[in-house]
Amino acid sequence: MSAVNDEEPRFLVLDYITITRDPRSQLVVAIGGDDRAAGILQTTGGFVSAPGPRGPYHRQPHALPVDQQREGATAAAHALLLAGFSVHLDPSLNALGAPGGDRQASHRYLNQLAERARQAADGRDVAAVLTEIAAPHDGLLPRLVQTLISTWAPWTRRLDDAGRESALAERLMNTTSSLSNHSWQIQQIRDQAAKAPPVAKTAPDRAPAAPPQQPTAPSSPRRR
């Protein structure tokens, strides 16, 4: 039996790089790495350097289609891994993921959120669920509103450029505006629920105790 080697393993990792999507601008950004990593990001993934508040970083160009964003991010991640870097790639940007994987992950998330809502014990638990639904920028409803805006705005523009009636696109615009207002209202409900005092737990119901039995008088003997 060989002796145990207490020496720590030596990794061939030069640096750690995160490739993800900025939730505010929806740009794909890469943070970390050195000059060598910057060259791989630029040549393989189509990234450009940009100044940041904590130093330079890399991002993909504006108005890049989603498919091209994923292809560039995936290609850059694999090239960086082959070069010895440690890379975290946002799963939503992995172009080699299984078809329908994003949709299945979304369904699992919604199912888990629904279960949390069913198990909510007080206002704070409810507020936590409502935060996931309506939190500014990152909530489900604000993201849905942004998707709808990305749908009706170019649709309306194309119809106007073609001189066609845009009433249907305007209906979608009005519905989107209404949904945005509902999201704001849910945020207000969430704030109030978070301030609500916790609900006192009640003791479990107990079966009423049986009344004490009264002593019975002895029966008189029968006459024969």
Task: Describe the overall structure.
- This protein is of the alpha+beta class and 224 residues long.
- Helix content is 49%, strand content 9%.
- The protein has six helices and five strands; from the N terminus they run E-E-H-E-E-H-E-H-H-H-H.
- It has helices at 35-45, 66-82, 101-118, 123-134, 140-161, 167-195, and strands at 16-21, 28-31, 48-50, 57-59, 86-89.
- A five-stranded mixed β-sheet has the order 3-4-2-1-5, covered by helices on one side.
- Helix 4 runs antiparallel to helix 6.
- It is globular.
- It starts with 15 loop residues before the first strand and ends in a 29-residue tail after the last helix.
Helix content: 40-55%
Main sheet characteristics:
5 strands, mixed
Q: Which H/E pattern describes the elements?
A: EEHEEHEHHHH
Instruction: Count the beta strands.
Output: 5
The structural class is alpha+beta
Give the overall silhouette. globular
Average the pLDDT over all residues and give the rounded result.
82
- How many H/I helices? 6
Indicate the low-confidence ranges by residue numbers: 215-221
Instruction: Give the radius of gyration.
Output: 31 Å
Q: What fraction of residues sit in β-strands?
A: 5-15%
Report how far the terminal alpha carbons are from each other.
98 Å
